[in-house]
Amino acid sequence: MPLLMIDKHQVPASWTDAKRWRPLKSSHARSARSTYLNIALVNNMPDSALEDTESQFADLLGAAAGDIPVHLKFFSLPGITRSLRVQERLRNYYFGIEDLWNCRFDGVIVTGTEPRQADLRQEPYWSALVDLFDWAEHNTASAVLSCLAAHASALYSDGIERHALDDKRFGAFNERRASDHPLLRDTSDIMPFPHSRWNEVREDALVSAGYAVLTKSAEAGVNLFVKKQRKSLFVHFQGHPEYGAETLLKEYRRDVGRFLRQERATYPSMPREYFDAASSELLMKFQENALSNPRKELLADFPENAVARALQRPWHAPAVCIYRNWLCYVASKKTHVSTLVRENQPD
To answer: What is the value of pTM for the model shown?
Structure first.
């Protein structure tokens, strides 16, 4: 059964190229609510990553869904600075956040965005984001919160402050299972996941506030942690299991460009455990040239195509497994039979 999406006005080709999913006409949306799992994706990523994020989550859900039919609807928070091009895309293909407040969804996925303030409560979208958390607690069976959204949720719900890192936590890190929680059913004891962030929430604070930590690593800290918030199981990722094979490379190239344009003072660290030896050598040679003669024109020589050919995505299989388990949980709550939240054990 394909993953389905609402056709608001027209459907971008990038949404319909994937074989796992197809558009759903608005006229069929009402019947879909009772037949399909209804998932809202609140995509708050910056303009440069907005469209990639659409595809990443749709492809991940499509791979995870199997025989579970999924109806996906796109939203974005107000208060995020957008270019005119992206504003037009949101008008054409996304639904206004006010449409969300008047609906119940089986599940919601909320992405982060690039922070501008050290204190998330000072971000212009903070009030809309906390309204979204309140709505999700009462109107979904489960909410997935990615990166900054996970930090914001822990701050709002339990006052857990995030901590700035000395350097960007960037790369694919091997994580171990720290729980037998059913979200990890059929996963390996060690799983790689990508991270890209400058801040973290720490395990001791999470555990003290009643969160269950499911995966973590010595280098990257906690990734996946969960807690029941009223009616909804909140599933938090500090990392990005949805990332495509080239996403970290694109972020690295973006940060290199910022250095060459003198928008940052230091050359960015290379993502950990991501490039093979030959690619790392190419990138080190580029770095040497960039440090000796930094100028924005040099970015045209960045060896993106040569490096991209060697990239792999070892986190995809565990990501699909976890999201499959999440969809099964959401489906079980739709039929009022819980297979995930267990009595007398942390959620």
So the answer is: 0.91
Q: pLDDT tens, 19-77?
A: 556 666 666 666 666 778 999 999 999 999 999 999 899 899 999 998 899 989 999 99
Q: Known catalytic residue: 304?
A: no
CB 196 within 8 A of CB 240: yes
- The catalytic position among 147, 236, 251, 316 is 147
- Spatial strand order in the sheet of 215-217: 190-200, 163-177, 215-217, 221-222
Beta bridge partners, 199, equal 164
Q: Identify the CA nearest to 43 among candidates 30, 32, 34, 52.
A: 52
Active-site choice (54, 123, 175, 242): 242
What's the rounded Cα separation, in Å, for the pair 319 and 58? 13
Task: Reply yes or no on whether 242 is catalytic.
Answer: yes
Q: Which domains, ranges and CATH numbers included, belong to the chain?
A: 3-164+198-243+316-334 (3.40.50.880), 247-308 (no CATH)
The catalytic residue among 240, 251, 321, 328 is 240
Query: What are the respective helix, strand and coil percentages of the chain, to the nearest 5?
Result: 40, 20, 35
